[in-house]
User: What shape does this take?
Amino acid sequence: MGTKARELVGEHADKIVELLNRALADEWLAYYQYWIGSKVVKGPMKSAVEAELVQHAQDELRHADMLVMRILELGGTPILTPKKWFELTNCGYETPENPFVKKILEQNIKGEQCAIDVYNQIAKLTKEIDPVTYNLAVQIMTDEMEHEEDLQSLLEDLENMKFLK
Ligand code: FE
Ligand code: FE
Ligand code: MG
Assistant: This one.
């Protein structure tokens, strides 16, 4: 723990740790959703979509890392077992039962939109009381917005393919 780090956020530390752990559950579920999605995805533009999903999976894992570092600085305990992921998640998990590109993209767009809301909320709540967590939330939210846009433009390209015939 960072003694001074915890002291600076004072009475808010435990609440912030809880928010960060909920976001951590989301990041792991998002990581797996992207990673398994990249393996099973089928359909037109498959290789472009697969590459994007793999890259996003790596980003979600990096976000998980950033969250854990902050939880530890604040003297908290990060989620220690995957069993907690479904208990704490804000955004849930969309099972890619239908591997068609369009469906996979739509599921992940939904996840990104939820993630943007989550980090926007954390940013709002920490702005005045914990500038370091605020900065972390804004950094991650910036990535999630890029993810949303990447997936939406792939979906748009896919939908424009109908004009080829
Ligand atoms: Fe993320
Ligand atoms: Fe993302
Ligand atoms: Mg991307």
